[in-house]
Structures are given as C-alpha cells and as structure tokens.
Amino acid sequence: MKHILLLNGPNLNLLGTREPQIYGHTTLADIERHIAALGATFGIRVESFQGNGEGELVGRVHRAREEGAAAAIVNAGAYTHTSVALRDALAGTALPFVEVHISNVYKREAFRHHSYLSDIAIGVIAGLGVYGYEAALRFLVETEAV
Hints:
This protein is of the alpha/beta class. Helices cover about 35% and strands about 20% of the residues. A 5-stranded parallel sheet has the order 2-1-3-4-5, with helices on both faces. One of its GO terms (molecular function) is 3-dehydroquinate dehydratase activity.
C-alpha cells in the first residue's frame, strides 16, 4: 500500500483553540483522522506527524524517504517563512509535496507572504481552511503523484 506523510509544523497542535477566528475550531486530531480515512478510501496509508522543532520536522522528512513515502502534505507553519533546513530536507530527499496553509497567508502580515518551500512544491494551497488538506490529498491522488 502506498503511503504519504502528513507533516504539520509548530503550533499546529493548538488548532481548535489557537486563534479560531483565523484557523477555525477543527483540531489537528480531527484533520488527521479525516485525512487518514479519506486516504484509506483511495488505498493510501496516511501517516501524520506534528513537530514544534525544526530538527524534528527535518528528521521526519528524512525518515519518510527511508520508509518509501510516495509524497507528503506539508503545513510547515511558521517554518514555511524561515526554514532553509526544512527546504533542504524536502529538496534533498526529492519527496514530492503539496504545501498547505489553512489561512490565506497573502491577506496577513507581509512576512507570511514569502515561502521557502513553494518553489519546490508541486502545488500550494492557501486560504481554504482545513479543507486544504483534503484538497491536497485529492490532488495527489487524481494527478497520480502517489
């Protein structure tokens, strides 16, 4: 069975209670359950990982390659805008991924407008709320990226 990595960065463990006016009330556990169940309908195993540390995320990307992950859905949180290390891990492992943002980062602070990941992602989804995760999975399946 093919599998993909659902990778979430810092503070996304606070979804459901963190700034609900921006991120809504859905928890990360809710998202993980939904994406895993949807993946199963496509015959894909979805493995979820959330980390607040940059090194944790980099290490998980390395392990995904070793485990033969076909692709990833990545919401790197604040590391989207700051982490060359995470970019290098994704580029170095050649793991195809869709970058996801719950909020529309282009309607927010200027520092959120730049992503170190977008130019190496196969797609970017921003501003669709938590549906962005489902859209990313469907895209990966329908374009046969996995």
